[in-house]
C-alpha cells in the first residue's frame, strides 16, 4: 500500500502500530482530524472501546463504524477499513458517511467565507486609518496666507519621511495655486528630524526653488540647525531668528 502521505489519496488515511500510535497520516487526514499522537484520541468516548476490540482483528472486507472528533469540535461518523501490513503496523482508510462529509465540507466553506469577509473588512478599516493618518500629517503643516506674496507654514511634531511626503504635495499644490512667491517655514514646534525626513525636506526645498519660490526658515533650534547643515545646500534660503522678526 502507498505511503499515507501520498497526495493521491482522496480519503483520510492513517498508519498505526499495535498500540494505536499514529506513525503517519495523509494530507486529507490532517485537514479533517484533530491533531493526536494516538488513534484512540481521534475518537469519541463511545467509539474508543469498540476500536480497541475490533481493530486488532482486522475484519477483512468490512468497515468498522466509529465516531471521530473533527477540527472545530465537529464530530462525524465514518467507516474504518483496516489492513494489517505486518504484525506491528496497519493502514486505516477512513470513509466519512456522506452526511458527515457534507457537514464538514460545509463548515470549511463557511469558515473560509467568514475569513475572506473578515480580511476584506480589515482591509477597508486599514484604508480608512491610512487616510486619517495622511490627513493628520497634512494638518501638521497648515498653510496660512499672510499677504498676496507670502505664505506661512508652521510645522509640528517630528519631521519624518511619512509626514514630509504628505506635507510636500499639499505645500507645492497650494503654493502654485495661490501664486505665492515667498514661503516661510516655521520650525518652532518641530521636535526631531530623522534622516529620511531630512532628505524629504531637502526635496521640498529643491521643488520650491525650481518653482521660483524663495524660502525663509525660522524658529530653528540648535539641533535643527545642525541637522539642516548636513544638507549643504542653500538654494537661496534665508533665515530669521523668530517669526516676529519676519512679520514686523
From TrEMBL:
Every STAS domain range: 140-248
PANTHER family: RSBT ANTAGONIST PROTEIN RSBS, RSBT ANTAGONIST PROTEIN RSBS-RELATED
Source organism, top-level taxon: Bacteria
CDD domains: STAS_RsbR_RsbS_like
Protein name, entry field: STAS domain-containing protein
InterPro entries linked to this entry: Bact_StressResp_Reg, STAS_dom, STAS_dom_sf
Listed PROSITE patterns: STAS (PS50801)
